[in-house]
Each structure stands twice: as structure tokens, then as C-alpha cells.
User: What shape does this take?
Amino acid sequence: MIDTLIHILALTAPVAMIFASLFAFTTWLERKILARIQNRIGPNYINIPFTKFRKTFGLLQPAADGFKMLVKEDIVPHGADRFLHLLAPILALVPAMMVLCLLPFDLPFANESMKRIHAAALDNAVLLFFGITSINTLAVFMAGWASRNKYSLLGGMRAVAQMVSYEIPLVLSAAVVIMAVGSLSAQKIVAAQSTHWFIFTPWGLAAFFIFFIASLAETNRSPFDLPEAESEIIAGYFTEYSGFKFALFFLGEYLSIFAINGLAVTLFFGGGNGPWVQAHPWLSCVWFLAKIFGLIFIIIWLRGTVPRLRVDQLMAFAWKFLMPLSILNLFVAAVALKVQQPWLTWPLCALVLYAAAHGLSRLQQKNVGPRTYQYAE
Amino acid sequence: MTSPALHEPVLQQFPATRWDAAARALIVPADIARAVAQWLTQPANGEFDYCSNVTGVDFLPKEIKEKTKNADGTEETLTRTEPGSLQVVYHLYSMRRRTGPLVLKQVAPREKPVAASLTPVWRSCELQEREVFDLFGVRFEGHPDLRRLLMWDEFEGFPMRRDYVEPADYEWEPTPHGEVLEKHRRGKVIS
Amino acid sequence: MKLLGSGIFKGMAVTLENFVRSYFDRDRKHHLFTKEYAWKSDAPADQLPARADTTVTTRSRNFPMLLHDGKGSEDPMASIRCVACQICERECPPQCIFIEKEYDANGKFVKRPVIFDIDISVCMSCQICVEVCPFDAIVMNSEFELSNNDRFNGLLVRRDALLKSNDYYHRIHPEEAQERDDRMAREKAEKEAKQAAADAAKKKAAELAAEKAAELAAAKPKVDPAAPTATPQ
Amino acid sequence: MSTAAPIAAPPYKLVRHDEAEAGLLEVSMGPHHPSTHGVFRMDVKLDGETVVRLKPVFGYLHRNHEKLAEGMSYLSSMPFTDRLDYFNSMANNWAYALAAEKLVDVPVPERAQYLRVIMAELTRLVNHTSLVGFFLNDLGALGTPLLYAFRERERILDLFEQASGARMMCNYFRFGGLRCDVPAGWLDRTRALVGGFPKFLDEFEKLLCENEIILARTQHVGVLSGAQAINAGITGPMLRASGVNYDLRKVDAYGIYDRFSFRVPLGAAGDCYDRFMIRMLEMRESLKILEQALRDIPEGPVMGNAPRVFKPAAAEVYGRVESPKGELGFYLIADGTTKPYRYRVRPPSLINLTVLEDLCVGHSIADAVVILGSIDIVLGEVDR
Assistant: This one.
């Protein structure tokens, strides 16, 4: 019994540490990429304390931020519900951390028994994944309500509406891959993609687009960051948070980005598969992380470009565009998988999906479009 | 500046108005001000659809010494005090006809200044009349929402008047702590 | 009607181009417009342009300074231009200049300021004092690293701190200083010329008067010799 | 535990809510709200997310600029005009100089007229790029358009610093001309900048004008009809976005604007998207003016022979200029002394805010922020 506990500990501890340190790296990466997009340099002068060494390319910026958060006073508003105010950031962080070990992240030093434990315990990884991440909605609304601040309340209500309505396209687009593989276990899904990744099938590509957009909404990132809209409701649900609780929210947000992108990589990009993986098995970790950081670059790139949607447009986009498209994709994938001739079914699938997307986008943009202007002399 | 033709028709139409040649402005009594304004917006007579600027001006009573020769040839200086006045000046333009400013003035006494609000005619006067009320104290009859524009509501006095005396500690802010509260409890310093 | 995301992709293409070009652009300075602050600021304060490659141009004006024509070593107060006429004190919009005249032992005004303070927390470097000063005594400096932690005395700059030499002025604002010196030289030349003309006129008038007096004197002696000759018989 | 000492009764009045509005959420957005462009407060009554009532509150930045001016000479209040609309100090200077020149007709030399047009159009570029940047910031695009706009603004501010000595507080105009001539090489640097500007505008339009989220968020939001705009005294790009052709550079043709050929873009729908696009198109027209002005600027003095002490005869004067925000007017009453008897500034930002409530009621709070952003106010000018 003891050695299985040790094995489980040996499996989960490194994953938690790797992703926590990657969180620090990602905050630095985000600030540098956003800076370069906006023609500036980003943090580059953090001198190591008690030494004259100054030019450190800002790599110590996350450490400096972390220390600052520790030192900052942790203010709880007068009328706030103290217990819920403390519980909300914990509830935002713990599910994100738990979900990380569901990912098919086979560690290099894992021996046979560890692999069996990992595989046996989690044969329904994807189902467990969605179950745990939906706790995040609860945490955000708890933070919004407990802060007793009008702006947080607005932020909290927006978060609930957004996350609930984007959960459905997320799950439906994952269902397509599960239907193709026939199992909920992450290892089997990765194994099924050893020859070709699902992203390269038309219904896989459509499913990935829907999954990626829905995952943006799930983690409150760029076009869907309404719960924390600075320009409208100051900072949304974490307006009244300062000090380390604020840092916990950020840690929770970034870890859920890692988790959801990890799932996207497992479902569509074939987990740890990549060239030379047979020769050096430890390469699968590197490939897994590289693909995750590819998706994270796209997320940061989107954040630097695109403004924010309004709440009703957000809802309309989820229910009127993503939902019908993902259901149609489900049927199209079912037909394609049944009729096993790819040269016939793939072009047909692509055609049907593209036509549906066009029709729905015309529906979405009825009286909106670029205009021409006349001039007066 | 004002082309002479602009104000002639108004004089014929409303005999009560008079033309102040020095300031090239049309003095309009308060009671018929809104009628004149309504009349001016008609397309037939000038179509002044745009009221660009509303200003308050405070004239203090002035003593004017005049040397007059009375009957027996001796010179004698008469000091005549010209009564002060609070004037509200409107600059009207016509956007469609692109005609120059027609300056309309409402003259009100300094003690209890009252003027007719032209906001029902031109919506642009709303905030500017509130500012004239806030800084000069001219009450506008018929203004939809006459409150102080720039000063906080508990402020007393009208700062832009020529005879305005600043309160001793005008930095005072009604904050509920320390010696400021003490000052407040001892009774308003600015009475 | 294009596909829903096409406008967004166009925008993302622009940001990606900016991202890539910021690394591989030939003249990187063109694209990354944030300037690095001059760490090498330990050079002495008055070699300003050399010290910081900031955007300080030969015309940028920060807070005013008083000028004196003396060379480096000797006492600046000897050659200070300011005569404490207090025009700038009156004209200054935020009223941040404070001047007191200097009186010597027996109370005669010595045409120099004892106290000339500028409160740089109030001053908005608007250069009105420079325009109204008839003696070109006050000009704008470009020194901008003036922050200090003492709110009252630190930000009240006294006369000696304000006083700078004319060649420092030539170093930071060369063509403006040159133009100002030429104008002063021209005015001085005109004044001398007028003065000289006035002297010449006075001298000529004096000669004229002398001649007239002489000729008057000459005329009068005709009469006088007659009179004295009469009396001695 | 002894009960805490009762907190002293606050001297300010407590407002009692009446029943009809029991269910509404009252939020006071401001005075330090990230998207109110300065210290400006809006008391908003929300039914869920939609705005039911919106009362703007002014006065947080009120410095009583007009009373100050009555106590100082005409020249001394020129630097204060920089601080009215601190985004375009040259346009404010020009409005004041224009009004004062009507008091004492001082002939302005040719080169000064051309330089005035160049400086005014450069401030229009600065103002419109910054406005588009802030507008996108209110929409949620995290800083990227704003920083592209600020990159161009920095270049123009460097030109201002080389010409007038200060980046934002230029204090460069005088009655009868300009304080000093531009340094050597300045005109070539300006020609280079004006040459490179269209490339930046194309990049800006490619980034913004077809973005579906911007289209969805700004079209049909805050619609203002032409008649309503004229009656409410709206001026500037906001008026032209509602389709009314009224541009003071064409109507009054002050300075030498009649020598330049440029067009005035007009909007059709009068919503936030039109107000945003009108400013983008106006920048292209300003570039045309700048090219023509830079092409045929003559040599010569920049300062007419203005009197040493500015002491105009008693008169009343109203001078107005097409500042990037609207019609900026100065109403001066001179009484023969060196100090103006009455000095009044007609603030375009304040009067454009008259219709803020009409535009925002019925929209969501996110739209209220966007509508305020499209009106383009600067609190230095609103509160004076």
C-alpha cells in the first residue's frame, strides 16, 4: 500500500512543480510577447539583490512579482463575507492543480508500475477533467459575491453566464474525438493518434477551433475576459483582492490555461507524439510542453490584438454559432467514421462544415459591416 | 462682426428689444426672451438653429463723474452711480445658412438675478446655463435641471462675481476626521 | 459576407508583423521606440546633452536660471545681469518668483537682488519671465533631474543655485544664446551710437554756444573800450 | 469588549432611495474609473446591465481658469490655455490668439500663418491617434492600438519640443504671430514624418476597421441624429459623424485655410463606429493640408510688429477655432486696461457631453463606456 502511495506521490509532485515554475515563466513570456507586439521592450532590468548585475532580461520579474504579492497587505472589505472571501481563491486554484495530473504527461523516470497506476486509475480522464474544471465557475462567482462590491457582483454574474454557456461547445467538441477513439482515457487517445493527429481531419480541425475558442472563454482570456473587464467594471470579481489572494487567482488562471491547453494537445495534437520520440522516450515530455507553449503563444497573441465582446454578443456567439456548429460537427464526424473512405468523406465534411460556418456567420452579422463614407467639399 | 442685416428683423418684430451698438448685441428683456428665441429658430427669419456659447458677465455699479455746466456757468461734478447688472450673453449661429454670430443679451439686476432659460429652445444651453447659475447666481426660469455644475452642492457664494470674497479656509473639505470635523462642529466658517 | 473571423485574422497579421519585425527590423531603433534611460548619469550635472542621450533638444526648456557674464572662477554676483526690477515677479502667471532688492550700507539701491527665489514646485516653465525681462537676465535651463525629498527647501531654488554662467547657456542652447548675444551687442552698439551722437550733438551745441558767446563777447568789447576810455581822463 | 466609539455622524447628507427604484443597482462610475478619461463621474442606475439613468457630475478638475485670467495680463494667461485641452495645446493657443487679434488688428506675417496651420494640423493628428487608442482601450483591446498611436504621437511631440521647447505645454503662439521661428531642418523632419504617416494609417486601418468584434461593439451603439446634434450644440467630428456638414475650417476659413484644398468626411448613421471612422478619415485630410502647407511655406519673419504692452481698446470679441474636439471659442471683453474684463472659454468637450445620457440610456454599461470614449472628452477642458 505504502509503495503505491509513494508512486502516486512520485507521479504528481513533479507535475505540480513543473507547472508552477512554468507559471512563473509564462507570466514573463506574456509580458515580453505583449511588449514586442506593442513595439516596446518589456521588463529587462531586474537586478539580483545585493549584486551589481543588472541586465537580466527581466527573468526575475515573476520572482519580484511573487515577493511583492507576499509583502502586500491583504485587505478584506468591511462588509465582505470573510470566510467566502478567503475560500474563493483556494477554490480557483485547487481544481486547476488537480486537473494537471490527468494529462498524459509520462514522466521520463517513471517505471512500469507507475505507468500502470497512471493508466489504471484514470481511464476516464476526459470526463474527470470536465467535472473538476466546472468548479472554477463556482469559485469566480463566490469571489464576486463575497467582496460586497457592485463591480465584483457584476463581474461574478457575467462569469457564471459565460462559463456555463461555453461549457457545452467545449464538451461537444471533445466528444467528437472520444467518438473517434472510443475511450475516455487520455493514454488511449494519444495512442490512437500515433500515425496521424486528429487536427489533420476536417472534423478534427473544426472541433479544435470550437474547443480552442470555448477554452478561451472558460479561462476568461482575451476576447472573453468580461468577468475582469478593466474598462467597464474595474477588475471584475477580483477587484477587492490584494496581496497573496490576488496572486492565487492569477496562479489558478494560468494553471487552468495550462490544463485546458494540455487537454487540447492530447485530443488534437497527439499528446507526447512527435519525431524521434521512439528513439528517445524522454522527448515526449518536451513535445508535450512545446505544443502547449505553441497554443499559449496564440492566446497571448490574441490578447494583444482583439478587443472584448459584450455580454449579450458573448451569449449569442456561444448559443447561435458554436453550439450548432459543434452538433453538426458531431454528425459529420459520425458519418465520416462510419463510411471509412477518407478520399470521399473528407472533402464532403469540409464542404458541409464550411457552408454551415458561412451561413451562421451571415446570420450573426446581419446589419453589421464595413461602411463607405461620402465627403463634402 | 455681426452682419447688420441679422438683428434688424428682430427689432421690428419685437419692439421691446433694443440694440446696444457699442457691444453689437441685442438686449432682450427676460419675459419675452423665449418667444424671441423661438421666433429666431424659424426658417423664415434667420433659422438660428445653433446656440454656440452662453456666458455670464458681472458689471459692478459704477460711479460716473460728469462735469456739467449748470445755469449760472459754474462747473459742478455730478456723480451718477450707474446700477450694476448681471448679463447672460448668447451667441447664436445658423448651421444651415452658415451666417455669423447674432449676440443676444439678457440683463438682470445684481440683487435677485433672474433670467429666462433658453434650454427648451436650444438644448446646448443646458450645461452652460447651469454653469452661469453656479458661478454667477443667475436663476434661470424653466431650466429642466438647475443645479450647480462645477461646485459641490453645499458650496455657498458665487465665485465668478467681481465682489466675491474667498472664505478664510476655502481649502476646507467636509471630511469626518480630526480638526476639520472640529471646525465643522464649531459652526460653518464660511457663512 | 466574409467568414466571421477574417477581419480578426487581418488584425492578427498586423500584430504578428510588428512582433517579428521588432526582432529582425534593420533599424530596430525605428520600431522599438522606448528609449533606455541614461544609466551613465554619473557625469557632472552641467554637461547635460553629453550626459544623457535623452530627447533634450537645444530648445527644450525646463526651469529658469539667472545669467552672469563672468568667467568661471570669479564671483558670479559681480557680473550678474539681473537688476531686481521685479517685472518678472509681477508678470509670472503662477506667481512663483520672489525678489528682494539689495541696499548697500547707507540704504542706496545697489541694482542687484539679495534674494531671488523660484519655487519650482509652482513654476510651470512657461517662459513668460524670459520674454518680459528687459535685461536678458533670466533664461530657461534644460536641467530636468531636479527631484529631491525635501518638499519645502529642496524645491525652493535660491539665487546662488539659479545663477549660471553665460557660456553654460551657450553650451545648452547654442543658437538661442548666440542670437541673444548678437541682439544685446546690437542694442549696445545702437545705444553707444546714439550716445555718441548725443555727445557729438551736445559738443556741437556747446561749441555753438561757445562761439556765440565768443562772438557776443567780441561784440560787447566794442562797446566796453569806449566806456572805460571815457572815464580815465 | 467595549463597544467601539460611534463613528462621528458624517456632515454630508444621506440620499434616501424611493421605492420606484428599489430594484435598481446604483453605481457611481468615477471619479477615478479607468475609462472616464480623467476625473469625471457618472451616477449610473443599472437594471441588471442596462443603463436606466445616467447623471454626469463635473467639477473635480475645476481650477476656475476664467477668474485667474481676469487677474492677469493678456499674455500671462496664454500658458494657461495649454492646460485647457492638454492634448492639443497649439489649437488652444491659436483660439486665444485669434480672439485677441480681433481686439487689436495686428497683421500676422505669411510664414507665421503657414506655421500656425502646420502646428494645428499636427495637433489634430496627435489628438485623433490618441483618441482612437483610448477608444480601443475602452473596447478592451489591451493597449496595442494605443501604443501604436503613442509611437506616432511621440514623434510629433519631439517635433513640438524642437520648435517650442516643450512637448505638451507649448505656449508657442503670440498675438500677431509666433514666439520664435522653427529651427533649421525642422521642416524637413516634418516632411519626413508626414511622408511616413499614411503607412502608419494603413496599418492602423488594417488592424481595426474590419475587426468583427469592433464592428459588433460599436455599430448601432449610441446613435445621434443630425437635428438632435445641432440642437444640442454638438460640434467637431461628433457632429460630422451625424451627417451635418459644419467644419469651421470651411465655414469661417480663419487663418489661411481657404488656400488649401481638403475634404470633410461625413458619417451617415451617427453611431460610435461613425465617430471612430470620421476621425480616422479626418487624419488623412489633415495629411493633405500638411503636405500643401509644407510645400509652399515662404521664408520671412514669424512675428508681426505687435505692441510691446498689449492694451486693447474697450470691445467685445468672440473668436472660434476648429479644435480636434469641436468648436473652441474665446469670448473676450476688453475694458482698455492690460487685463481682460471677462475671459470666457467655450469648451467643446463639455457641450458634447449634453447628449451623453440620451445616448447611453437603454444600452448596457459596457456600451456606456464605449459611448463616452467616442465623445472624446478631456477633463481639463470640461471643468476649466
